[in-house]
Amino acid sequence: MEAQATATVKEALAALYHHPDDSIRTAADRWLQEFQHTLDAWQVADSLLHDESSNLETLIFCSQTLRSKVQRDFEELPSGAFRSLQDSLYVLLKKFNKGPPKVRTQICIAIAALAVHVPVEDWGAGGIVNWLSDEMKAHPEFITGFLELLIILPQETSSYKIAARPERRRQFESDLSASANVAISLLTACMGIDQLKEQVLEGFSSWLRFCHGISASELASHPLVHMALSSLNSDQFLEAAVNVTSELIHATVSHGSGTTAEQMPLIQILVHHIMGLKEQLKDPSKDEEDVKAIARLYADMGESYVDLIAEAGSDDSIQIVNALLEVTSHLEFDIYSMTFNFWHRLKRNLIRRESYVSFGSEVAIEAERNRRLQIFRPKFETLVSLVSSRVEYPEDYHTFSEEDRRDFRHVRYAVSDVLLDATDVLGGDLTLTVLSTKLAQAYVSCNNEQNPKWQPVEAALFCIQAIAKSVSIEEREILPQVMSLLPCLPHHEQLLQTVCSTIGSFSKWIDAAPAELSILPPLVDILNKGMSTSEDTAAAASMAFKYICEDCRRKFSGSLDGLFQIYHIAISGVGGYKVSSEDSLHLVEALSVVITTLPPESARTALELICQPVINPLQELIQQGDQILQQVPARQLTVHIDRLSSIFSNVKHPEVVAEAVYRYWPTLKSIFDQRAWDTRTMESICRSCKFAVRTCGRTMAMTIGAMLEEIQTLYQQHKQSCFLYLSSEVIKIFGSDPSCAEYLTSLIQILFSHTVQLLRTIQDFTARPDIADDCYLLASRCIRYCPNLFVPTEMFQRLIDCAMAGITIQHREACKSILSFLSDVFDLPNSSDGGNYREFINTIVLQRGATLTRIMIAALTGALPSGRLEEVSYVLLSLSRAFGENMLNWARESINLIPPQVLTDAERLRFLNIISDAASGSSLHTVTDRFGEISDVCRRNKTVQDLVQSALRPHDLTFTVVPQQLS
Hints:
Helix content is 74%, strand content 0%. It is built from 51 helices and no strands.
């Protein structure tokens, strides 16, 4: 059998690497991947690695296979197999001591993974590091392989590819910490071998986080530290030396490293050597990767010692800040952006009160804050000047690929964040002053007749609009000049786009500007030009128009005719505007918020005017007959309905909007009736109705009955999930209204009765996640807003049964809605008005508790992704608090189903204790953390996870017979 499997592996590898047919190569790759999960893979991979005739392709595949088997499938081996596996891996390590390097690395990772799995005593006295020390001394000819293993050991402690229990992983870390001195001694002994210098540095970097027992003063004079710092000036070893130095920096500020005074001997020597690299940053002959390495070191130093820098404010501190400004001045984004986190952290130190609490009194705190700000403000001014030039459009931008344009936008977003950090230190007005100087210089070059350049002006304006929210609305020196400059700028597309964005960003300032400045009319003219130039400028202009109308709405109330003209041109699509359908919604919203400022009678007239270009096209389609209405593309309807949604959402005159909804209901009903099969149209029209309900509230009573009747009828025929979502909004507004009880009872009964027929199995849930999501959102709303119409009904218990079938749906939103519904059910009896429902809920849950608990524990241990852990934990927490001892018994039954090879007796007891503690008041955060560890144990590899799920059978709902009615 083994010989046959070995031959098949060789054939598959030959096909994978050399067969000309793609389909054959794909099939071979699939077979090899499946083979890696079999028991035979252990012996075959081991055998081929020892086989002298194996080629490089075979060796690489087999070393990867053996490594992954040790990492994830170690528990497949019988208990006595460790020794033979250890011996075999040791032989292989010596065999591949001189290569191939890829194979040797995989063998080293496999040995490290084996060390994580087994207790320290299995390696002899002192564990694997002492064992390795003995082997290195006894067999120096294999030093290369041994040294690589020494490097990899600490790296693998953080590898979650290794299917080890959490406590075993913690113990391994503890064992390595106890052996750190031995490892450092081994590395020190290898220092004298020139060809091993890079490996020694790499090993020192790996082990530094375990060197808790070595004091800072010892490290400061340690030969390995001296070697690393002296290697910073070596091109050959620079990267390795930087890695060590970074780890040393982190060690001086890590948790438990001691006081700053204790770390100072090491900090001083590190800063001294790093500052000695400053000239290399500006050396044009330096390789870019080396410059990146040095820049990373400066960034690490700055971020780690930012508190010391800020608190001292000394000449030495300023020298470090100046060095970081040197890095920020570099032309490459990958290099200068490394400093951005330092500036952010320095800003936080300077402005947060927590940085000054040790100074005691408010007077002392304020004095110290002012001292620090006075020292560092000039540096932030320089920072603003530096980064503001980084956002200029390149001359060849028009040739950029979409990916290059995306990268350029990313640079701009990052620079915007830095500018906002600077405004927190300097204040918006001072930052604006710095940027206005840039704008003035750029405007001169823009008007240069020989070589006019718009890019510097655009960059300055981009930076100015980025800080708009930080600029005082009382600012009267710079912004009037900026606003008066905008109409004078050339209408280059990218520049015009930024000009429009700048206008929108300063809408609040424009509203507060003195009337005598007459700022608004010329700016509206610019926005008109923007809407006529290109789709990109139209998008920026439409958004700016929305902001202007929101913040300057009262200034527009007397000039509605002009606004309606702009609106009608944009909506009609004629007249030269290049506003897309999506961007036209900004204009709809803009006029809607202006209408909100009008008195009711004027608002009625204005609302009619704004709705006409939206409703008329819909009515024209309806008048062409049912057949035409059913055949038109959804887009022809939704473009208008979405505008109606925006109007209903933003015109804050409930009675006026309610009248409009009543007036237009026949039009909406025709679309409901003829397009109920069309998901896209129904989602759009339900969204419009939802906003109408939200805005109008109970003033919409004259339409709500007809709307609910429509929803009930159409849902029974077409099962569109958006009907459920619209019903959720209706329940929220009208749920507590006694006059609507009859309507709502009928709505709840019909919607839920038809939904539970659709969702009988987990396969049904998976096929209809949108229905599941909106159904349980609606159910939760019913519990919160009208429990009296919902909880005492048969439909309530049927929805619980339905939820149990769908808990393990993988769709994130649907799953969260189901889990939220269940926790709402368990929490209801303990709510302020929930006592009336305790008996109903107790009867239902007590009949289903064992099955429900089993499914929830299955979800916790692998049936749902680990990212759903908090939601699952909360359901278990709620169930534990509501059903105490019963829940503990149900949990015990379920946990006892999990096979002994998955959970030890101690882990089972820990699992039960978590549930017991949850019942007695543990916080969600504590419970989630503790459940997370048990969850990791049960998911540690695929075999274990499959065993758990096979035992708990989350989809097997015949485990407990659930009655359909309350007794």
